Amino acid sequence: MNEQVTSRPDGAPDPSYPSTEMLHTSEVFDGQPGCIAQARALAERFLNRLVSEWLAELGPHTRSDLLLAVSELVTNAERYSHGPYLLELEGTVDRIHVSVYDSSTALPVLYAPDPSRLGGHGMEIVVALCDRLTAERVPVGKRIRAEFLLGS
């Protein structure tokens, strides 16, 4: 696994304008057993850094919502792609982006809620948890990106 972490420069950001600096981390997973737990652990460490180093304030459900969304997105990448996938987390004091890149070009299908349907609820869950969801084809396959506004 490869992990990359960057952080803002020392010193407090100027509150008079929004910072373009972001806390960033990413890791490549190969689909071996334990990858989902490792992805959640990466997200947990990221959130802890965002709170302790950037003084971000998380809403009452942000942590659990974000960790569940990471689980669902990584599970889908594992299930529907052939090959490794990349989890990327980017955050500021007011928002977090969770992106998963995988090798499949097939965009996810969003089904209407149906409690009698077996399976196919992953993206439905992510849509309910995040503030914005996008999916796009990229040169390596596709990117699914969930945005979470902090403090909400």
Q: How would you explain this protein's 3D organization?
A:
The chain has 152 residues and is α+β, with helices and mostly antiparallel strands. It is 31% helix and 28% strand. Strands 1-2-3-4-6-5 form a 6-stranded antiparallel β-sheet, covered by helices on one side. The longest helix is centred in the first third of the chain and has 20 residues, at 35-54. The radius of gyration is 16 Å and the shape is globular. The N and C termini lie far apart (33 Å).
Give me some keywords for this one.
disordered N terminus; alpha+beta; 6-stranded antiparallel sheet; 3 helices; 152 residues
Q: What is the topology?
A:
Layout: E1 3-6, E2 23-29, H1 35-54, H2 62-80, E3 85-91, E4 95-102, H3 122-129, E5 132-138, E6 141-149
Antiparallel strand pairs: 1-2, 2-3, 3-4, 4-6, 5-6
Q: Main β-sheet, in a few words?
A: 6 strands, antiparallel
Strand portion: 25-35%
Poorly predicted residue ranges: 1-18
Neighbour order of strands in the largest sheet: 1-2-3-4-6-5
Distance between the termini: 33 Å
Form type? globular
